[in-house]
Design brief:
477 residues, 22% strand, 18 strands, eight-stranded parallel barrel
């Protein structure tokens, strides 16, 4: 069980970097933050919509160049959103004014640009927090505390949706329905789906006394509230578009393990997330534990999530920001070791927090990821939802010129096919299970131009459906 942990300790980093082979399927994700313009849009671009669009292209081009395949875009910030909603006001980060939208749809643009680059886009929703008093007041009568005071709680100078109030489930269900119906998102990602930290004095005793089950402790009652919310939102998404991946970010440590304690900071006891139960019950497709720690605070808990994944995907959230001198000033070696140990636990992959620390190449992390993600990869398939491979494309042809190969094919006849994968190999037959043969992943088109120079290669194309299932290959002749 501790094999990955022992590898990290015993094998020197320069050897470890070559130890765990790159797989064909793994999440390679980043959190792209919009709050306060931390990642996008930049504060100096507020109100300059052309600059905002151009900056997004620069970010996504940089991520595509290192084969990132999933972007978690912060879509609900603090009781406000980055698209035109009938339910919540527009966040001020784009226009500089609360409730005022830019002259374009940031979410629609991000989806289009991610898909054009073969990336998935998951809409990241901050679930329970609504912001501090000043932020909430900025939205005036459009804020949730102003419109629905009874289902909001003020705690330590900030506002929260009350997890135990039925109106919270109704409001978030309506928001998720609006989002999934209107946009071609690949996933819905719930963040802060939990009680606030330091909640021993959180003022919910009236709700507890009114709604607790006989003999139920307050901690169990709170966990039940969060799980009921998770269960309801999962069912809402699946009832509209069952292929949309439902995920959540949790605290990095579920609880104490038999090997190491969590030092009083864990998902289960501290913020009332019984996330391993969510996976066991099957009310979540992927989990992103925020493992922003080093040493024994990291490795045993990766193992714990792996052992309790119940067949669902676990994508380790990595504290890439800790490399920065203003944070923990980690050495790059810490991230290198963690990446290799994560890959030794083939449950899902890794997610970097946050995008800017990656694209800024903090302590060389971008350069290392370029090597570590040396070839494209597909996100793992959600086989518990659908495991049937789609029909392959047909009528595939290749035309050669002095500068490129133009590959073209007819679309698969399956209606749920969303993209195509291109494979290239020097010899036949083409082994599509070998990650090095994957030339381009998740192409949302039926034509591809290969500008690589060199000898004539053999090509194949496969279809991939919305659940991640891949067809048999069609040789391109």
């Amino acid at each position: 069980m501790l094999w990955g942990f022992l590898i990290a300790i015993i094998i020197p980093t320069h050897v470890l970097a070559q130890f765990v082979d790159s797989p064909k399927r793994e999440y390679r994700a980043v959190w792209l933050t919009t709050i306060k313009g931390l990642d996008w849009p930049r504060e100096e671009h507020q109100g300059n919509y052309a600059a905002q669009r151009a900056h997004l292209s620069i970010i996504l081009d940089s991520l595509q160049a290192i084969n990132i395949n999933t972007v978690l875009l912060q879509t609900r910030i603090r009781g406000d959103v980055i698209y035109s909603s009938d339910i919540e006001p527009f966040a001020p980060v784009f226009s500089g004014r609360h409730g005022v939208a830019p002259d374009y749809d940031p979410l629609a643009l991000a989806i289009e640009e991610c898909h054009r680059r073969g990336m998935q886009l998951h809409a990241w929703l901050v679930t329970i927090p609504l912001g501090d008093a000043a932020y909430v007041q900025g939205h005036d009568r459009q804020s949730l505390p102003a419109k629905k005071r009874s289902q909001c709680t003020r705690f330590k100078g900030a506002w929260y949706m009350e997890p135990s109030h039925p109106g919270t489930i109704e409001h978030l269900s309506a928001l998720v329905e609006e989002l999934v119906m209107r946009y071609d998102v690949d996933g819905i990602h719930f963040d802060y789906i939990r009680y606030p930290e330091g909640n021993s004095s959180y003022p919910d005793v009236t709700f507890y006394n009114q709604s607790k089950q006989r003999g139920q402790s307050k901690n169990d009652w709170r966990r039940s509230n969060i799980t009921t919310l998770m269960r309801t939102l999962y069912a809402k998404v699946k009832g509209i578009k069952p292929w949309v991946c439902v995920s959540a970010a949790t605290l990095g440590k579920h609880g104490d393990t038999s090997r190491y304690g969590s030092y009083g900071w864990n998902a289960y006891h501290t913020v009332h997330q019984e996330a391993q139960e969510w996976m066991r019950e099957g009310i979540i497709d992927a989990l992103f534990p925020m493992l922003y720690y080093a040493g024994r605070h990291f490795y045993p808990f990766v193992t714990d999530w792996h052992e309790h994944s119940y067949g669902r995907h676990v994508i380790a959230g990595m504290g890439t920001y800790q490399l920065h001198p203003d944070e923990k000033n980690w050495n790059l070696e810490e991230i290198v070791r963690q990446l290799n140990v994560i890959r030794a636990h083939p449950t899902g992959g890794a997610a970097q927090f946050r995008s800017k620390f990656v694209t800024d190449n903090t302590k060389g992390v971008y350069d290392y990821l370029r090597l570590f993600y040396s070839s494209p990869a597909l996100p793992p398939a959600m086989v518990w939802l659908d495991s049937i491979a789609p029909q392959p494309p047909n009528c595939a042809t290749v035309q050669q010129t002095s500068i490129m190969m133009t590959l073209q094919w007819s679309a698969s006849k399956d209606s749920d096919v969303v993209a195509y994968n291109i494979y290239r190999c020097d010899s036949l037959p083409i082994n599509i299970s070998h990650p090095k043969n994957l030339l381009r992943a998740s192409l949302h088109d039926t034509i591809y131009k290969d500008f690589s120079q060199g000898q004539r290669c053999h090509y194949a194309v496969t279809a991939i459906d919305r659940y991640g299932n891949e067809s048999i290959p069609m040789l391109i002749k």
